[in-house]
Amino acid sequence: MSELQRDENGYPIPETGEIIPGMTEQGKGIKCYVHSEYAPLKACLVGNPSGGWMPNGETWEYANMFAGLNDEFKDYIKKYGGTDLKETDPEAYEKMAMESNALAEAYRKNGVKVIRNETGHTPDYLIDYNISWSKQKQFTLFGASAFEVFGHCLVQVWESSNSNIAELTHREAINEIFRNDPEAVWLTMPPHFPNVNRPFPGPFVSPGDPRIFDKMVLLGIGVPDPSHVNDLSKPRSSGDEWGAEILRRMLEPFGWKVKTVYFDSRLSYHIDCVMSVLDEGLLACKKDALWTELPEEIQDWEMLEISPEDQKLGIANNVPLGNKKLLCHAGSKKFAKDLEKRNWELVEVPYSTIYGKIGSGVHCSTASIWREFD
Questions:
Q1: Side-chain half-sphere of 332: how many Cα atoms within 13 Å?
Q2: Is the CB of residue 283 less than 8 Å from the CB of residue 295?
Q3: What's the CA gap between 149 and 270, in Å, rounded?
Q4: Which pTM value belongs to this model?
Q5: Residue 1 has pLDDT above 50, yes or no
Q6: What angle do CA 319, 305, 210 make, to 5 degrees?
Q7: Cα gap 194→116, rounded to integer Å
Q8: Distance between CA 41 and CA 108 in Å, rounded?
Q9: Mean pLDDT score across all residues of the chain
Q10: Rounded distance, CA 347 to CA 100, Å?
Q11: Given this model, what pLDDT does residue 338 score?
């Protein structure tokens, strides 16, 4: 066996080059640290349109996630789920590609360093990584499925069977960040039991489930009826109580608390499409979307109401950039005016095709890596 080549820090250098060309370079100069969702965003991972495979809505996990969504959405998933939109619905795919590219460009224009696969190609062995047991190919638009960062801790979570591939695609950039950030900590929740027909392999936590505050994670658990909150025999739309407990045990040694709140999963399967954290002391949420009270740490925070029309648009699935600047879906009426009255600047991007056909928006396409106050 030949001796591995190593870089100046003693780390091995792959003999065959990078999986995604240029990815290592993209990781340079980036810190792994998130103070909170309202701290200024300095670096993030963003999804890309290199893979057009729609989620297969017939598997138990996605059927459960999509159960509360509207019939138009369900009909689209039923027709195109498990297919490559590049071939089956090229018009929609081209719109999605345009929206994804517009999102990455918006971040760059606002001074955010972006990690993203810009080659236009994701290798088949990554697209097919879990298909042997999950019946799912990788859909590359959603960068948030890679991980969440809490303080110095990058945490890989496991909600759906293809949720780990975004991190694998960008692994060389993440490795570069960790090589140069000695405080960064890499954690992972237990991977799924590899059987798509087993209803609850768990534990489940999705990157769309946490709302991140200073030293506190609020994990949203979705149920369609308030009577289900205390009935653990009823399915959860995404993350569950066992996932919340495992995440609590993971983060507690690093000084973080994990609290839970229950929300109406008929609005969305993730709380990041229902409630957003805009700034310290300021939240936004559709009226009556939460089944249970917020934890005492944030009960006195102001709650800006999101109209039903804006919630359907996906306006809650936004990304604060810091300093009263918000990246969000274009087309809002009331929400945009409410923030402009408060002297906020809105960076609006077209995202109606992606949100309308998949139910996930700009926050779902973004994994924040570095958020910190200067």
A1: 27
A2: no
A3: 17
A4: 0.92
A5: no
A6: 40
A7: 28
A8: 11
A9: 90
A10: 15
A11: 96
Report helix, strand or coil for 272: helix
Q: Which backbone phi and psi does 328 adopt, to 5 degrees?
A: -155, 170
Most confident among 18-27, 46-55, 285-294, 358-367 (mean pLDDT) = 285-294
Q: Is the peptide bond before 40 cis (omega within 30 degrees of 0)?
A: no
In a 10 Å sphere around its CB, with 0-12 CB exposed, 13-18 middle and 19+ buried, how is residue 174 labelled? buried
What's the one-letter identity of residue 160?
A: S
pLDDT digits (tens, 9 = 90+) for 76-95: 988 998 999 999 999 999 99
Q: What's the rounded Cα separation, in Å, for the pair 33 and 79?
A: 41
Q: How far apart are CA 167 and CA 10, in angstroms?
A: 23
Question: Domains in the chain, start-ordered, CATH in brackets?
Answer: 32-208+306-371 (3.75.10.10)
What pLDDT digit, counting tens, does each position of 316-335 carry? 999 999 999 999 999 998 99
Average pLDDT rounded to a whole number, residues 203-208: 88
In this structure, what token pair is assigned to residue 7?
Answer: 């870089």
SS3 content of the chain, % helix, strand, coil (to 5): 30, 20, 45
**What residues does 84 pair with on adjacent strands?**
53
**CA gap 42, 230 in Å, rounded:** 40
Nearest to 32 by CA among 370, 374, 372: 370
Return the residue matching tokens 């006195």. 300
Residues 30, 355 contacting (CB under 8 angstroms): no
Inter-residue contact 123 to 342 (CB < 8 Å)? no
Tell me the chain's radius of gyration from C-alpha atoms. Answer: 20
Which ranges constitute the DSSP H helices of the chain? 23-26, 60-65, 71-80, 85-88, 90-109, 124-127, 131-134, 165-169, 171-180, 241-251, 308-313, 334-341, 352-358
Q: How many CA atoms lie within 13 A of 244 on its CB side?
A: 21
